[in-house]
Amino acid sequence: MIHKYLSENDYNYLFNYIKYQAKQYKYSPLDKDEIISAGLFGVVRGLKTFNKKYNTNIKTYLRYRINGEIKDTIRFITKSRNAFSKPEFVYNKKIIDNISVNYNYDETVFINEIKQLFSMFNDRDKYLLDMLYTKDFTMEIIAKELNITEPRVSQIHSKCMKTIKEVLIERGSND
Predict the structure, then answer these.
(1) Going by C-beta distance under 8 Å and a sequence separation of 6 or more, which residues neighbour residue 25?
(2) Taking the domains of the chain in order of start, what are their residue ranges?
(3) 3-state SS class at 110
(4) How many other C-beta atoms are found inside a 10 Å radius of the C-beta of residue 43?
(5) How many alpha carbons lie under 13 Å from residue 134 in its C-beta half-sphere?
(6) What does the CA dihedral 148, 149, 152, 156 come to, rounded to 10 degrees?
(7) Which of 30, 72, 77, 96 could lock onto 34 through a cystine, CB 3.0 to 4.6 A?
């Protein structure tokens, strides 16, 4: 038994339920991974607050907690995105150092290329890069601000850097 009220089969059932919910929210502003993460937070918080004296089935209780956490996260992200100022690319040597690929054109062209690439990211990704490189926030603070996990911040950052790197290499090889 993994938890005093849940068996391994119960955890499998709950995880499958979370994956099902992620499919239901495919048009939400969150990625599938973020919805799954929010659902898992719902399980963790539900296990902390569950009280057996109310004679409730724990799986039923956790399903409500999963749905509530997903909806709360979507509301928070939607509200936060509307409140965020639209970040714009600001030249910062750190972002260029992080890409670490050799390019054969001058710095001005390179900065314009990155500025153009920055505009193709969604608002959340732009905000994350802006907070990381311009405002020097840690991934922990960014995770709290965006209401996602720190590993998810790292995944999004890696995805953005990989995209920038791939496009720059492709454009550089076309010259």
Answers:
(1) 35, 70, 74
(2) 8-83, 93-173
(3) helix
(4) 21
(5) 11
(6) 50
(7) 30
Is domain 93-173 given the CATH code 1.20.140.160 in the classification? yes
Could you tell me if 5 and 50 are in contact, meaning their C-beta atoms sit under 8 angstroms apart? yes
Residue 117 to residues 30, 31, 57, 164: CA-CA distances in angstroms? 21, 20, 50, 7
Rounded CA separation 175/26 (Å): 39
* C-alpha to C-alpha distance for 167 and 147, rounded to whole angstroms: 29
Coil, strand, or helix at residue 60?
A: helix
Are the C-beta atoms of 168 and 103 separated by less than 8 Å? yes
Q: Give the Cα separation of 25 and 62 in Å (integer).
A: 18
Query: Tens digit of pLDDT for each residue in 111-126?
Result: 777 777 787 888 888 8
8-83: which CATH architecture? Up-down Bundle (1.20)
Question: Binning pLDDT at 50, 70 and 90, where does residue 1 land?
Answer: very low
Residue in 162, 172, 59 with CA at minimum distance from that of residue 106: 172
Query: Which two three-digit tokens encode residue 26?
Result: 């495919």
Between 171 and 88, whose confidence is greater? 171
